[in-house]
Specification:
Porin, 9-stranded mixed β-sheet, Aminopeptidase, alpha+beta, 2 domains, 8-stranded antiparallel β-barrel, binds zinc ion
Length: 487
């Protein structure tokens, strides 16, 4: 039955030669986002139906399969998925070995709790646009100097697998330097509501803003060129390519549709807008494929760049437990809770670095009552500005690392309650006076994942905590769990 539905849909849409582009786009979205396709969940027979529909159109338009077969299967964690990759060959004897990759994922979320997630905007809209972009580019193929790869990706929703696979495969076959641009068309069905087409990544292209804007003017479309993809919470199929250093553009009308909800249906799509977007991306990618001077800028969005920057800045806050070690008397005060907060500055040299912080801290430690193990005679409290400096070893990159550091610290104590304390250990001597300049050794273990940092820090004082003659020799100890955010 499913095969019959597919055959009928394909036949109808293929036969409709006299249709306008907008009518064809409408037909594609209504089929791909229909309940028959059950939400096109990656790796299912329903995603395969979508792939077959796309193949039917690509081949009818005249595209050639790039890898010899239309379906490009790959496995990820033991499951099989399928990209569909076609090509329109360029005409320039040299530039035809260079590629512009246009991609749109066709998978969506499937069915959950009996609800079909039809994914009309995400991403039947982009898949439909790509079919019609391919048709326009093919029709004007004698103008194309570079070759254009048209790729329908599987398994975007579960981790960008389809596009990562193609990026990886192309870098091994044609070489990443031959890929001049990758454009991901993802969620382009809500132009009217959005009022603009977002184009993220123009700074990865030399003169990118100008190229994108002047073509938009010609096509009477409002674009919003953004220098880079920024959000750490969203990703699209550009990622695998951008990480190779390929210039990328993420094309979208934004998060206007009922994003990842069962209500993302074909009836809500702005087909007039989708048609406008399709025309614009066709002429933009055609212009880029025909322009020998088109070049990347050599710049990559920070979120796609796994190299560490030389200087990293962050904010940190820690919970401390402190105690005082009376070196010669074996008296150790009880740990009490303190805290710190401040900034962190790291200087990186490959997997090594220098880690510094500037912290305000409040340290607290309780003196035990020597006659009663459960009681205390008072708390020692000091407030200080502390600067630790550590030599770090941190295997990993900017996306994740493990770190170990060894070094020293200096604290300037600007407030303490030492003089008010009457301590058993010091009862026969003059009032306690705190040493305002304190220093010692520092050790750190930590993990960083994305922008988040977690460290465990240990510090031990090397000079005396209390100044003056005849005062027992005491040293401060610090154990701190720190959470940080590195920008
Ligand atoms: Zn999507």
């Amino acid at each position: 039955m499913k095969r019959i539905i597919l055959a009928a849909a394909l036949l109808l849409s293929l036969a409709a030669g006299a249709q306008t582009r907008q009518e064809r786009l409408t037909g594609h979205v209504y089929y791909l986002a229909s309940d028959e396709l059950q939400g096109r969940k990656a790796g299912t027979e329903f995603a395969r139906m979508a792939a077959d529909y796309i193949i039917g159109h690509y081949s009818q338009i005249g595209l050639k399969p790039f890898f010899g077969e239309w379906t490009v299967p790959f496995t990820k964690y033991g499951k099989e998925y399928t990209d569909v990759v076609g090509v329109i060959e360029g005409n320039d004897p040299e530039l035809k070995d260079e590629y512009i990759v246009l991609g749109a994922h066709y998978d969506h979320l499937g069915v959950k709790n009996g609800n079909v997630y039809n994914g009309a905007d995400d991403n039947a809209s982009g898949s439909a646009a790509l079919i019609e972009i391919a048709r326009e580019l093919y029709a004007s193929r004698e103008n194309l100097k570079r070759s254009v790869i048209i790729a329908a990706f599987d398994a975007e929703e579960i981790g960008l697998y389809g596009s990562s696979f193609l990026a990886d495969t192309l870098s091994k076959t044609v070489g990443k330097d031959k890929i001049k641009l990758m454009m991901s068309i993802d969620m382009v069905g809500w132009y009217k509501t959005s009022g603009k087409l977002e184009m993220e990544g123009v700074a990865t292209i030399r003169d990118g803003k100008n190229i994108i804007s002047s073509e938009a003017e010609r096509c009477s479309i409002t674009v919003d060129p953004k220098r880079f993809e920024k959000s750490v919470f969203t990703a699209t199929d550009t990622e695998g390519f951008a990480k190779l250093g390929v210039p990328t553009l993420a094309v979208s009308t934004g998060l206007k549709s009922p994003y990842h909800k069962p209500e993302d249906d074909a009836e809500l799509i702005d087909y007039e807008g989708l048609d406008r977007v399709t025309g614009y991306i066709s002429s933009l990618s055609g212009a880029i494929a025909s322009d020998p001077s088109f070049e990347g800028s050599g710049r990559v969005a920070r979120k796609h760049d796994s190299r560490r920057r030389f200087i990293e800045f962050g904010v940190v806050a820690g919970l401390q437990s402190n105690h005082i070690d009376f070196v010669k008397s074996s008296l150790l005060t009880k740990r009490s809770l303190g805290f710190d907060a401040g900034i962190q500055l790291d200087f990186n040299f490959g997997n090594f670095g220098i880690g510094t912080r500037a912290l305000y801290e409040k340290q607290v430690s309780e003196f035990p009552d020597l006659t009663d193990a459960f009681a205390s005679t008072g708390s020692y409290v000091q407030q200080a500005v502390t600067v630790p400096v550590l030599l770090m070893l941190k295997p990993g990159d900017s996306t994740a690392d493990f770190r170990v550091g060894v070094g020293g610290y200096y604290s300037y104590v600007f407030d303490s309650n030492a003089s008010q304390l009457a301590l058993p250990a010091a009862s026969l001597l003059s009032p306690l006076q705190v040493n305002p300049d304190q220093y010692g050794i520092a050790v750190q273990f930590g993990l960083k994942a994305g922008p988040l940092l977690l460290t465990y820090d240990f510090r031990r004082q090397l000079n005396k905590l209390f100044a003056g003659d005849g005062i027992p020799d005491a040293r401060l100890l610090n154990y701190t769990f720190t959470l940080g955010y590195v920008f």
